[in-house]
Write a structure and sequence with these properties.
The chain has 9 helices and 13 strands. 41% of the residues are buried. Helices cover 36% and strands 19% of the residues. With 291 residues, it is α/β, with parallel strands linked by helices.
Amino acid sequence: MKVLVTGAAGFVASNLIKKIKLDYPEWEILGIDNYFTGKEENHIEGVRYKILSTWEIIKNFETKNYNPDIVFHFGEYSRIVKSFDDIDYVLKSNLTGTTEVLEYCRINNAKIVYSATSSSFGNKGEDQNLNPYSWCKTKIVELIKNYHDWYNIKYEICYFFNVYGPNQIESGDYATVVGIFERQWRNREPLTVVSPGTQMRDFTHVEDIVEAVVKATLSNLNGEWHLRSGKNVTILDLAKMFTDNWKLIPERRGERFTADLIETDTQEKLKWKPKWYLEQWIKLIKDNVKV
């Protein structure tokens, strides 16, 4: 099996590659990343990496001649609030880049496994129009399904719900909320809770995510998979799991208020159940256990 991973030096993709290397060592892996948020320290030993943007994937000599069976497409812009400022890059990365990846899959008759977002589901689907990021991700899901209808491209669409865990980004404009809180707690700083703090989110550990991604890939069902813990938590309650030292900061444009719990048969079909919960992870962090 030959596998190509986009965004290979990023948070979720690096954890996916680690799992593949452990469970399927016979699979050949080529990782590409333009290191917009990816880091060389996330590289996995024994994997070949190439500095490359997704919109260059068809013309590049190495990827052009690689002929993968599966493309794990995780290399997109993936932040809500900053997407207003970065809209040119969002459109290039998510629309232009993913269209190129889909064409690459069509040319190579490869399956695409796509990292979709739970932000599409807020407010009965209306929140997909709250920001450029969510809108782009929603349209790409439509495009993938159309490529299946038009060109018989096989796919698995995996919706990620607020992923946390090893290799998450802890600082800067592209940091995750759990990562930010971990860093602030370690530095004995007040945890910055975006007002009003009652926003609901479903947080899912990255090890659970990548386990489900592999199961979805091997299912060959052209499915849409909701990879979530199944438990909604408010941002304020998340902060309080760390400490009582927190403060409210102003609301941010484009963020959804709720995380809708949509009926799904993901767990039954994939025979998958999350093993991690936030309280467990945070306790390990606070006990200074290496994770």
